[in-house]
Amino acid sequence: MAPVGPTPIIMETTMSKTKELKGASKAFSGTLKKYQAEWQNKETFQANAPSISQVPLHSVSPADVRTQYPKFFGTMAYPYMNGTLHAGHSFTVSKIEFAAGYARMQGKRSLFPMGFHCTGMPIKASADKLATEVALFGKYFENYKDEEAEAMPQDQIKADSRREDVTKFTAKKGKAATKAVKMKYQFQIMLAIGIPIEEIHLFAEAKHWLSYFPPLCQRDLTNFGCRIDWRRSMVTTDANPFYDAFVRWQMNRLKELKKIKFGKRYTIYSPKDGQPCMDHDRSEGEAVGPQEYTALKLKVLDWAPEAKKIIEGKIPEDAETFFVPATLRPETMYGQTCCFVGPKITYGIFKVSSKEFFIITDRAARNMAYQGVFPENGVYEKVGELLGSTCVGTLVHAPLSVHKDGVRILPMESVLSTKGTGVVTSVPSDSPDDFATVTDLCKKAEFYGIKKEWAELEILPIIRTPSYGDITAEFLVKKLKILSPKDTKQLEEAKELAYKEGYYQGIMLRGEFAGEKVEVAKPKVKQQLIDSGEGFAYSEPERKVVSRSGDECCVALMDQWYLDYGEESWKQTALKHVGNTDGKGMNTFAQETKNGLEGTLNWLNQWACARSYGLGSKLPWDPQFLVESLSDSTIYMAYYTIAHYLHGDIFGKSPGLANIKPDQMTDEVFDYVFARRDLTDSILTNSKIPREVLASMRREFEYWYPLDVRISGKDLIPNHLTFFLYIHLAMFPPEYWPKGIRANGHLLLNGEKMAKSTGNFMTLNDMLKKYGADATRIALADAGDGVTDANFEEDVADNNVLRLFTLREWIQEQVKGASSLRDGPKNNFLDRLFENEMNTLVYQARQHYEDTNYKLALKSALYDFTSARDFYREYSAAGGIKMHRDLLFKYIELQALLLCVIAPHWAEYIWLEVLHKPSTIQNALFPTVPAPNAALNAEREYVRATGGNITSAEAAQQKKKSKGRDIGYDPSKPKKLTIYCADSWPAWQEKYIKFVQSHWDVDNKCMLIDDKEVNRQVALMNEVKTNKKVMPFVQNLKKRLLSGVEDEIQIFERKLPFNEVETLQNMVSGLKKAAGLSVVEIIRVSSSDGGKSGFLVTVGSSSESDSEHRKIENLPSIAQSAVPGLPTFGFEN
Asked: What are the Leucine--tRNA ligase RagD-binding domain coordinates in residue numbering (predicted)?
């Protein structure tokens, strides 16, 4: 029986730090469910390729079919089914969801499928842990005695982020690396993610995870309003025999293509699990790979006295002992002047053979034990220990060093026992750290207990660099003002500069390969050391890696099946596709993504594709192994295209449209369906699948492929996204290679990292319950679009609950009272400005959606669109006229259409319930409107700016009065406003117009010189000091040109695109009401006399046809400041 009553406290809970609600109570959840059910019942999001009866297969080319019936196919990385979706998942989901929604509005058939990833160790490891815990504590953990959750020490939280090999691309830390709190038992973790204690024991069976979490994932995404075709979903692993057959076909073909090979290679390895530990098998160390070094054998020539005493009896007298540093720069070994140890580090003395012993750390010995360095795999015999300080002064022979008489072991406080072997060879000519340390040792020899001459061996040039000369380290230490080895920040910068310059541009000055470029000589020197027996290859994890089983991993050199990523011709094909120089390759949407992919392609090689533990598909030719989780998830997007033909449920138990069984999907059938071969009689005979069914499946693939965009978090660039690219290029003809990869940043919550331990964490279900789907989607769109980390602000979600509610209420009121609105012809002022602004925003929103800039699309489609309505509404009310009915209904319809991509439920409500359209807005096209009128845009901005400037001018007068200064009128009495508008531009501006025009790039719409050069050249024209208006005028001119709102010819010819006086006349009635003015007077200021006189245009609210004949003399000085488009103002009673 399940326990009755309160369960014992298993762990401390943290109160949620997410924000309290202000407006979420207004969310209309019932309406959301209604539309979601309608979309599902009407199969709104079920997308199909044109049938073979519509267009017979290959009657026209697949490309022509796609042209005739435009399509969009986008996917994201299918989520792993060891929990529910969190806010970070939803951010990535939103990107593909918005893209799919906009594609529908472009009239495209839009496919967004979603599968459920279950391959790998995490589920199996967690299930096995629970089985152990059930045996230990009972079915309901009733025998568990409350303990404190184990917190990871802070010094372990901070992973060593220093990059040893600066030529190698690395991703920023992924989600696994941000986990700061570890719970001791798996059942505690299950409780933390919301599993009832009476159900946890069921998860001791791995298959239960596969049936429990996928429905929750589908529930959350459906509640989110996703436009997903759920017919095409599946679970991975052999739990779905169709998907299992697909993976086996993929692996067979890759092996036939010689992309999968067998042999010894370095891989991250868990001794506890007895197998490679790949990315998805790790609780810490995501995207960490093996770091390969050259290990040097520095033979001991003469021991330091204290060390000699310690080793006595432990090492045979006729044996050789070596200090073994590991270096990434074998080409610099000619310049070794000493060798460093950490004085406080305990080193082991490890027996390699009866005649050979190594001095290294235990960690390094453990790595070497799995790399063939010691006689027996996994065994490293330690015969003794030495404290680093006891070794100081030992004389050793340094291979290749110009100092043939040997170099000394010296102390270095910054040596890490967790990096390399704990022994560091010193090359002060090219290593800033070494140069700084050697310099410090020389200065403080007595303090360090060494002889000064030990640190004073001559530093000879090894590599010549164009920027830093022959002694790179010395140059950079002086340039960056590095004073001691404790200047770690500057040293890190210097190291990166030195290593990059040396590797990419350095020329060897010494040794057999003198005169060669460093990047050419480096592997030759390494091989020379290995061939001479003075060095060997050594590898270790780049950073700490912990398996799901809790084992700290090492690197093993082992026989295994691996994908030969990095093979030269394959790599070059991939680089060309990413480079996209001919426009036929792949869109990466952001330069950082492109750089990341190219960087990974340039270093990635040989990825283990098999494991012996976990869930997955068996390797077809070696069934003792399972296909590794990042290797079975590279081309499953192709599987989506035919999944609904294969099965009717995610496990493949019920038949799909094809009504076939898994064993009918042979490798040859997959070859045909995925356009790798033609149909033959043998395929028809052996598979027993009807020709029409095979043709329909092939049509699905040929229509939906190539994949238009693949969206994932940026942490998947170094693995999944690169693998995805490689395998597509290997498996499919070029016509079907991916068209786009978009990487997004991680999602912050309220400006902070999400973490369950701090309470700053939300699942997608939490977000939907709190804010509803549309406000959540709006906040995700508002969070950002780049590769940098985005920020989900709960205030944005909450404010938009209120915004959508208020907007909906207002729209309903207007429709209800439509008979009281104005009809008939539209006026030439507010109606015309409002309609043009709507058209402009529709064009802007369209462009932003096409560019996948959803934050900007949201601004145009919602924030700016409602602002345009507010302007029209408020100015109409101030002018004493009603809004035009046709324009208002146009606004309502456009608002629904513009928001359909981001807020589909709200848009559907307005479309169906308010506007009473006959069918769902999900099938509506993006609105087509007349092109924006630049003159009307400029006039609208003028009206807004002038109204705001009048308000600001009056406020400035009020402020003066509050300080006791005379302002010339009493604000409490009826006021008169005089507006001074200029009839022409000041003469002094002409030469600056010509200056800007001479430096304006007409083709690229940009300045040919930067701001600094603009300022310099303007200053040389000798008016800046005497005329303070010059620089602001030039800057405003540039701003107007760069905005693209106005026609540049009009700007250079200094013509306003509208009649300023007429616009001011149209504004008068509104200004009087809005500002509480009794009289508004407009005076056109004459430039012929420097603005001292002008003509009265309008008195009060009337316009007189002969008013310009009424000349006004002796205008106030403020009138002289007016220029066309920027009037000035005066107040009086």
From this structure: 982-1042
The two beta strands, 463-464 and 356-360, are unpaired
Cβ contact 337:427 at 8 Å: yes
- What whole-number distance in Å separates Cα of residue 783 and Cα of residue 800? 13
| Integer Cα distance of 874 and 730 in angstroms | 62
What pLDDT, on a 0 to 100 scale, did the predictor assign at position 614? 87
Domains and CATH numbers, the chain: 44-119+229-257+638-758 (3.40.50.620), 290-541 (3.90.740.10), 793-932 (1.10.730.10), 964-985+1059-1132 (no CATH)
709-763: per-residue pLDDT in tens?
999 999 899 899 999 999 999 999 999 999 999 999 989 999 998 877 678 889 9
Give residue-wise pLDDT tens across range 149-172.
444 344 333 334 444 554 444 444
At 740, list the tokens. 């786009």
Nearest residue to 871 via CA among 947, 785, 772, 789: 947
Does pLDDT of 1131 surpass 50? yes
Question: What's the burial of 1126, exposed, middle or buried (CB within 10 Å: 0-12/13-18/19+)?
Answer: middle
Choose among 1053, 1049, 1050, 1081: nearest CA to 1065. Answer: 1081
Upstream peptide bond of 706 is cis (omega within 30 degrees of 0): yes
CA pair distance 1077, 736, nearest whole angstrom: 68
Q: 178: pLDDT confidence band, cut at 50, 70 and 90?
A: very low
Q: Are 1063 and 941 in contact (CB under 8 A)?
A: no
Asked if residues 416 and 341 have their Cβ atoms less than 8 Å apart, the reply is no
Find the helix or strand (DSSP H, E) in which 342 lies: none
Q: What is the dihedral of CA 77, 81, 85, 91, to 10 degrees?
A: -10
> Between β-strands 741-744 and 338-341, what pairing exists: parallel, antiparallel or unpaired?
unpaired
C-alpha distances in Å from residue 464, one per residue of 461, 495, 499, 815: 7, 16, 12, 78
Kindly tell me the burial class for residue 583, based on how many C-beta atoms sit within 10 Å of its own C-beta (0-12, 13-18, 19 or more): exposed
Q: What is the dihedral of CA 968, 969, 975, 979, to 10 degrees?
A: 10
Asked if residues 52 and 695 have their Cβ atoms less than 8 Å apart, the reply is yes
Task: Give the Å distances, CA to CA, from 466 to 475, 500, 506, 780, 1104.
Answer: 12, 12, 7, 48, 77
| CB half-sphere exposure, 785, CA atoms < 13 A | 19
Which residue has 């439509």 as its token pair? 818
Matching residue, tokens 């294969």: 646
Prediction pTM value: 0.79
CA–CA separation, 1097 and 1103 (whole Å): 7
Strand boundaries in 365-502, DSSP class E:
382-387, 395-397, 407-411, 423-426, 463-464
Contact indicator for 629, 278 with CB cutoff of 8 Å: yes
Q: Is 179's pLDDT higher than 50?
A: no
Distance of CA 506 to the CA centre of its chain: 34
Q: Any idea how long the chain is? A: 1133
Cα gap 799→788, rounded to integer Å: 25
What mean pLDDT is predicted for residues 794-806?
Answer: 94
Residues 769-798: pLDDT tens digits?
Answer: 999 999 999 999 999 998 989 999 999 999
The three-state secondary structure class of 126 is helix
Tokens 């999907």 belong to which residue?
Answer: 665
The C-alpha atoms of residue 107 and residue 69 are separated, in whole angstroms, by 9
Dihedral of alpha carbons 52, 56, 58, 61, sign: negative
Residue 974, both tokens: 């009826």
CA 833 to chain CA centroid, Å, is 39
Answer whether residue 435 shows pLDDT above 90. Answer: yes
1050-1078 pLDDT, tens digit per residue, is 788 878 889 999 999 999 988 888 778 88
Q: What is the pLDDT of residues 233-284, one digit of tens each?
A: 999 999 999 999 999 999 999 999 999 999 988 889 999 988 888 776 788 8
- The residue behind tokens 């996917």 is 75
